[in-house]
Write the structure tokens for this entry.
Amino acid sequence: MRAAARQLKRGVVDLYWRFRGPRIQVPEIPADPRSILFVCKGNICRSPFAEHLASKLQRDGMNSGIKFGSAGLHVPKPTPSPESAIQVARQFGVELENHRSQSISLELVKSYDMIIAMEVWQYAELQSSFGQHQGKLFLLPLLDANGQAKERGYTAFNIQDPYGGPPSAFEECFERVARCIERVFQAVGRQ
């Protein structure tokens, strides 16, 4: 009975996103951004992983000259990444041990060329709070060209928060974030 209820709920959610998702519009990726800020809810898993992976890829020669940062929409106090995030990030060559979360602010938004959210609700909250900077706001899942064909429904437009989940949830999340970041680098070109 539970499995049938879950299947029905997933079908309803996917149907909702099939209609809602295509209406989400983000600007074109700028050709030469000098700075990119990744944003998620608490700035302890997804956005710090994206920040540190982008920095690592840049050091490895994938791109150069871009400053990367991360912040959270709901950060009551500086918090370290959970152990599962630290362990799985290491598999990607990313170190999160010293990360401490920080809250998004108008100053941060003003100082970055691109602000990239992980989920639609975060994108909408950024639009609501920083609407005057609409041209800087992006949704990371929409930058995953491969994911658009592979993912459907909710997952096509949202990178789900792995917090509290098993290591496999972090692996799946971080793999998707990595694909999206590679797409961003391809779009901005090699500098």
The chain has a mean pLDDT of 87. The first helix runs from residue 2 to 20. The helical segments are 2-20, 46-59, 83-91, 106-111, 120-129, 145-150, 154-157, 167-188. The first strand starts at residue 35 and ends at 40.
